[in-house]
Structures are given as structure tokens and as C-alpha cells.
Amino acid sequence: MEVNKLEKFKTFRENKLETREDLQQLAKDLINPTDAYFDPDYPGHLDFGSSGTVCSKGTQEVEGFLRPLWAIAPLLSDSEQNLPIFKKYEEGILAGTDPDNKAYFGKMTNTDQLMVEATPMALTLVLTKERFWNTLNDKQKQNIHDWLIQINYHSLPNNNWHYFRVLVNMAMSLLGMDYSKDMMEYDFSAIDSFYVSDGWYKDGPVDQQDYYVSWAIQFYGLVYVKLYGDKDPDRAAKLKKRAGEFAKTYQYWYDADGSGIPYGRSLIYRFAQVSFWSAIAYSGVDTVPLGVVKHIILQNLRYWMKQDIFRKDGTLNLGYAYENLNFTEGYNGAGSPYWALKPFLVLALPKDHQFWSVKEEAPKLDQKISVPAGRMLITRDEDGTNVQGFTAGQLVRNQSHREAKYSKFVYSTRFGFSTPKDGIMLNEQAYDSTLALCEDGDHHYRTRERVEALRFNSDFVYSMWLPWKDVQVKTYVIPVHPWHIRVHYITTTKQLKFADNGFANELKDGSKETQTIKGAYVFSDRGVTGAEEIFGPFTLAKDLRPEPNTNLLFPRSSIPVLYGVIPVGTTVIVDAFLGSVKAGEEKEVPEVSLDGDILTIKYQGKTKKILLESNPEGQLETTID
To answer: Whole-structure pTM over 0.85, yes or no?
Structure first.
């Protein structure tokens, strides 16, 4: 038995992912392990585990059943493909939509998770029409329609969920069933209100521009373009134009090794990070060369197949780069990770499509790009590795660890980020890449959360934030890749202690933690992270070992931290932080001086002067330099 389990992992990891056949095989290898979870007496429900969510157990099981359809539907859109397990999915759909069957999925209510899961079913009906839908009798078709169309009679969250209703109605229209054009228009009106510029949306009327822009709003829009664009050409043209603009900057979110910047909520969806690019190929948007699109998709999948993302039976586990419940959301159940299968949409492209013959091409990217529309400034090494995303002004409501997922100063493909286990001691809070402040005599720290003002330009990210009503912090984060400089102006009516935290680094055999007179460093196979005092009321530089399973990329970590005490009044703190994948880069620390509002940085033989406090507002358009 153990040998067979190992063979399954070998299949995942040794798949070169170069051809259509390779991708078809990966889809099957990811889907087939779900077979062991089918209950013949209760079709349409898969119970992948005992951890709970905000949803009922029944809804969790429906989610686990329907989400693999994201890969099954495009795979079986090819009449030459065969997937024996699909027979069980057919039976489950028919039982789950039959109100007289004990396995009925249930009636939808307002903001029901079943609305989410209706979408892959709707797409499956369209993409496998000849194989499945056309074989059904009128009663079965009506049951499916009646279950899906419930979505029209209930309110849903004012965010990307509007597209679930659009796609359900689209599918019913394409299948010749009753649907609501008025409801589709209403939902598109809401979606349009989320638009920012340069192809970027917000995920609702909130300060949230994360992967939901790509794997939800843009992805669903392009599915609509492909399947319904001939019936709605003006809207399709607009959606394609926005997607093309978005693609130009979103390609910067990826490391040369294929990994995406770990940032925001729902990161258990893993390789859904590249679902947008599959939709780009599927819909024919061509602002980024097709070879680049192909490379981004396949390279990301190659990266994920090397990570510890599988249970012993080959099903997907809950976590990011390893099994980890600490950072998950309240809606993340044992079957939720199968939302990751959305990139397999590209399998709906016929075998003679250019995508399958074009040669992969790594994107040619600048080392720094500022994207105000996406509230991110991104840097990378010359070879495209070690991507770092600097952000400000994003925050999502009612999510766990929201300040850790959205409000740190920088997020890294190589060093990830950490989420707290508790809210008392620093090692429990696992603060990395952020400034933590605490009232003198207390032990509860506060970090940047919601900001009162922000500014992006090609030199820095600025934010002003209030950890307490009587404490104001103005923070400038200036990338000098692989270093970055932080300048904090802190005005307070009470004495505070602080911990300015660098990137977490992996702690394992061979890792090394060191302290210098003014700095702290951690060395590992991943690279080196470090923190250096420049000037300010520092008292100590030391590495901190957080609780295990706090970082998304590795279970044990160490964080270089600079400690100090802030007196009443206004204090300026300037320090430097390193996140490098190359040995020796810790030996040259940027030289920094601050004269009034002029920050001067000398590094690698170059000198740059940056105007801080009186700097005008950053440019609104995307800037590259």
C-alpha cells in the first residue's frame, strides 16, 4: 500500500507538463483519488475530512463533490477523452438536484455557499453537453435547472459572487432553459462598479485587490466572453480589453520558478493563481504572447507539484506549501482546495489549437514595476526570481488574520509570510515584514492594519496609519532590491516599545542565525534574510523563533527583528531589511542618510535621492522603471 501511495506522488512530480497529454494526465491524476470518497448510498456528497467550516456538514460535502468539476468539465469537452469516475459525478448531479432524493443538495438561502458550487456544475453542463446533458430526460433537465436557478431568488455578497449568477443564467440560456436576462444585467452592473483602472477591479466595494481579481472576476468574465460573446458582443469586447490590460501587469506576480506572490485570502486554492491565464488562452486575448501565457500556466503547475500539498491517498490537503490549518479561512473545508483545478480550463482548447504547439517563453519583465491600480509595487532579481510585492491600503472584512494577509509591508515568493497563532507574545504573533508597536509595560502588540492615507510611485510605498487614536505612524517603504529601506515617522502621546520585523526564513538542519552589533540575520537553503539598524532608538537586534506552522511556505522559521523604545513626541526610525536568494548580498548594506525630506541611498555604486514628506501624490497610471 505504501509503495502505491509513493507512486502516486511520483506521478505528480515526474510529469514534465509540456504537452496537452501531460496536462490531461495531471487532471486525471488529481481527480481519480476522489473515487475512494464516494458513498453509493449518498451520491453527490464527498466527505474529505473532519475539520469544520461556517457551513453545514452537508454543504461541505456538496462542495467537495462539485469542485473537481473545474477540471473534469474541460477535460471531457474532448469527446476522445474518457474518465470512468465521471459516471459517479453524473449520478451525483442527478441525485443532488432531485428534491425527492435523500441526497438532494438542498434549497439555497441568502448568501449560500451552494451558490458558489453551482458554477462548476453549470459550466460542466455546457462543456459536456453532448456527453451528459443531451442524454437526460426532460424531468432530469428540469430538476437541474430548478436547483441552479434558485440563485436568482436570493441575495448574494456584493463581490465576485455576482458572476456565479451570471454564469448560471448563461448556462441555462445556452442549454435552452428558462433564465433571467434582467438578473444578468443587474449583476454586470454591480461588477462594473468594482472596476478601478488598467484592467484592475476591487472584489466589491472594499479595499481588496488580491487573487480574486484574477481567479474570479477576470476568469469568469473571460469564460463569458468565450461562451456567450457572440450573443453580447459589446460587453465581450469590453471584458477582453480589460483582461488584456490586466495581463500586462499581472504577469509580474510570478517568480521564475513558477510560484506566485503569496498574498491575501483563500490561498489554499494554490494553482488557481494561474487560472486567469488559462482563461486568456481560452478566450483568445492576445496582449501577452501565447508562449508566455503557456509558460506561466505550466511553470506554476510544475512548482505546485513539487510542494507538500497531497494527503497520503493523493487528495489535496488543506494548506499552502504544506499541510497547515493555522492560516485557513472560516469557509475552508476539507474539499475546498479543489477550487485550485480552475487552470484546467485550458484543456477545453482543441488539440489543434496553437496553444499546444507554441513554444513556452519566459516573460521578459522589468526588475521593478509600480501598479497603483493594483496597490502593489513589485521587484525581482535580474533572473526573475525572488519576487517581492510591496503594498498598502488593502484590507478585507470578516476574515481570519486579515492584517497578516493584506497589511504587511512586503510579501515574498521566496520567504512567504506568517500568520499568528495567538495575540500575546511576539513568538506567538509571528510578525514578519511589519512594524509591531506595544504600549510600555504591556505585551499586546499592534501592527499596520487599516491605513488613513496611502501613495504609490516608482520609488516607494507610503502609508499613514493609527495603531491607537493618539499614535500616528507614517511609513515609507523604499525597495533597493534585494534590500528595502523603511522610514517610520511616529508621533505618540505615550512611550512605546517596538519590534521592526524582517522576512521570516526557513529553520531546519543547516540553517544559521547570527547577530551583529547592529543587525540580525538568518541563513538557509532559501537564502538570507536580515535586519540592520540605520538610526533610531534601537536597543537590540536579534532573531526571533515564532511558533511552528505560522509561515505559509515552511513549518519552522526564524525572523530577524530590531527592537527599541519610542519616547513621547515624534521619533524617526530608519532601518534596512534583506530578503536575498544569493549568498554574500548581506555583506553590502545600503548606506542611508536623511536630511530633512531628502532620503539618500547609496548601494552597489549608485546614489539615489528620494523626496519623502513633501513628495506630490504618486502617479495614477502604471509606471515602469
So the answer is: yes
